[in-house]
User: Fold this.
Amino acid sequence: MDFRLNEEHEALRQSVREFAREVVAPVIAEHYERHTFPYDVVRQMGKMGLFGLPFSEEHGGMGGDYFALCLALEELARVDSSVAITLEAAVSLGIMPIYRFGTPTQREQWLPKLISGEALAGFGLTEPGTGSDAGGTQTRAVLDGDHWVINGSKAFITNSGTDITSLVTVTAVTGTRPDGGKEISTIIVPSGTPGFTVAPGYSKVGWCASDTHELTFDDCRVPAENLLGERGRGFAQFLRILDEGRIAIAALAVGLAQGCVDESIRYAKERQAFGQPIGRYQAIQFKVADMELKAHTARLAYYDAAARMLAGEDFKRQAAIAKLHASTVAVDNAREATQIHGGYGFMNEFAVARFWRDSKILEIGEGTSEVQRMIIARDLGL
Assistant:
């Protein structure tokens, strides 16, 4: 085994690292404080080809792989998670369903602008009353002639209300299976469709420069050909998308954890206490060493899961392990980085304050830590 990056992946990592430091870092604190979406940053990410990293050149992508996307997410999250989650959700949750399950016509219609970063797409799975029970979908879609009529609501949907959001794919109950269970299908709903309402953005604890809304559908009519994939396979499709997305979230969490190490080292070298830099005290050294240990092992976990996915092997358990471990490490490192910074760690002008606020959602979004433990245990035969 060789965990070192090849030349192409290393070049990508360095390029995104420079972009994060030179373009994102100088402006993100203001966006975060004002809860504004960083359109200019997203536009530049599109020009860099970041939204097209794991997609074929045939569809306007960069011809890379999913691991390349993960590397980019890690480097962005070392500076800011709002920008990183915008990319992660846009690719893993927005583009991937259409890329994986769309018809040639759907791909031709939607992929060019999504892959170029000119437009964003949302992923409408979670509902206000279901949370982790995604199979408990209440939103319904009835086929009326050559249109689907959708009624219901979705919650916590990223990239669903920006000025460049072009569509949201939603899961909805479209009938009853032979065994009596719900037939859940996936339908593309373009932005601006009558009956599709985007609520004002949430007031969130963290990810304050990302876009998140509740969505409602009130007799929302879309063409029958907007069905994404096979009817009745919507839930299974999204489970596959979530398995992949957990590797991406793990990479983002590793980036946050490593950013905490970066900021703590910088601060420990500059901050003076009792006549010398605090980095000379063993108490601080041990904290930073433990933080680096956790970030490093979490990185190996998502590297392993990504390698298995790209090799065509089963990776569900490894993705859950990576997501569970990396999100835990992110929260741990954010807490320790805040402690190292003392009172300044409680001030929003310092990056670690953002890291602390952003870390907790990583144990919740795209499958809670409890769900990851269930996946792991079941895969072990329990």
